[in-house]
Design a protein that fits this description.
about 110 residues, 3 helices, two-stranded antiparallel ribbon, alpha+beta
């Protein structure tokens, strides 16, 4: 079993575990990112393409884990209800910041 972590953003770890099939881990990240990006889009009333949902979802998950670590000193790096909640919060925050910077969508 292979396991390694990457410090991605201000101490947020992206964990990868596999039994030799790294492709499956990447596929799970893509699916999770698509779902989180879609849920954040629903919350924020912002419709995106599948590719943008994946990008926003993955970055939102990293941001959400960082926020959870700051607020509760408990980084969320496993799949759980709280992981999904903070991932959606992070993705929604990214959408909000995009609107704030571009001035579109208000």
């Amino acid at each position: 079993m292979t396991h390694f972590s990457i410090k991605v953003l201000y101490g947020v770890k992206a964990n990868f575990r596999s039994n030799g099939g790294e492709t499956m881990g990447i596929l799970i990240w893509i699916i999770f990112g698509a779902v989180i990006g879609w849920l954040a889009g629903l919350v924020m009333g912002d419709s995106k393409s599948l590719v943008m949902n994946i990008i926003v979802g993955i970055l939102g998950a990293l941001l959400g884990s960082w926020i959870a670590d700051l607020l509760f000193d408990a980084p969320i790096d496993t799949f759980s209800v709280w992981g999904v909640v903070f991932s959606v919060i992070g993705a929604a925050l990214l959408i909000f910041l995009k609107r704030l910077i571009t001035g579109k969508g208000f």
